[in-house]
Amino acid sequence: IRLPVLFEVKHRPWLRGLRETIIKTKPDVIMVHGTGSFNLIRCALISKYLNIPCIADNHMIFHIIQKNVFAKLYYILNRLLLKNLIIDLVYKFIGVTNETCSYLEKYEKIPKEKIFHLPLGIDEEIFKYKKVNSYEKKIFVITQTGKMSDDKKPQWLADAAINLIKQKKLNLVLNYIGGGPKNIVKNIEKKFERENLQKNLIIRDFVEVEKLPNVYYESDICVYPNGTSLSALEAAACGSLVIMADYPASKDRESKGIGITYRTGDIEHLASLIEKLLLNRDLREKIIDNSVKAIQKEYSYKEISKKFTTLCFEAINYKRSHL
Predict the structure, then answer these.
(1) End-to-end distance of the chain based on CA atoms, in angstroms?
(2) Contacts of 216 (CB under 8 A, 6+ apart)
(3) pLDDT per residue over 66-122, tens digit each?
């Protein structure tokens, strides 16, 4: 059900008809995205009116927290709202990473016993593992999927790839899937033109989700130079080796056996890791094998939905026992 937006403040919409729509659907549980939105306040009060549990989630990670005057004021007001109105009306606050759980506790002052870790997952019906022939390749394919926006730093990967081609004499193609702002795309194209390496660069617009696995199957390594993209999990699930920026969420994935991290923004380190992995087939296959197993165990929709369903039943039973 899509509801019209009455107004919006800092990407936080006020949905028209929210209360009436929820009451009409007669839910057993209300699940709200975001702990700093109008929706949480409204849904928490609606859940109280209906005598049903409310659960909220949060996706925040430390490196994107804003620290300007507006942000500081926001956190003060949000803590007051949470403490005095919302916390007692919400059964659990879900953090999608361990870092998010720490954020909820440190910045939003949510009691630890109210926080529940439930990671984001991937659709294993779409992103299936497929073993690719492990012969020695003449041309390696390095891929970055997702929008080529500045916060994803595709230019860092471009610099690393050019270094590997020019200095290390590796025969590789850099493959971007997702398109992006014209200035960033043009800047990367010019980098390759200056080195006469146009044939080593491919930039394509977004592809349909169902076709993404083929992109990953054709890639030797998928690199996510900045951020903590869910695309890294999708690539790993399909059997592509992933390199991620060393933010806590990615290091947590690495600790579970998924991919490998590099020092964020260190282009020489990124290039050296790519070189090492391309030239060591056994190491690549070992990391890929560990990644696929970890994804299937920790990050599949099937496993995560079981945990979420269990949480919902716990919330319902708790609410009924406290009527």
Answers:
(1) 30
(2) 127, 143, 145, 222, 234, 235, 238, 239, 240
(3) 888 887 888 888 889 898 999 999 999 999 999 999 999 999 999 999 999 999 999
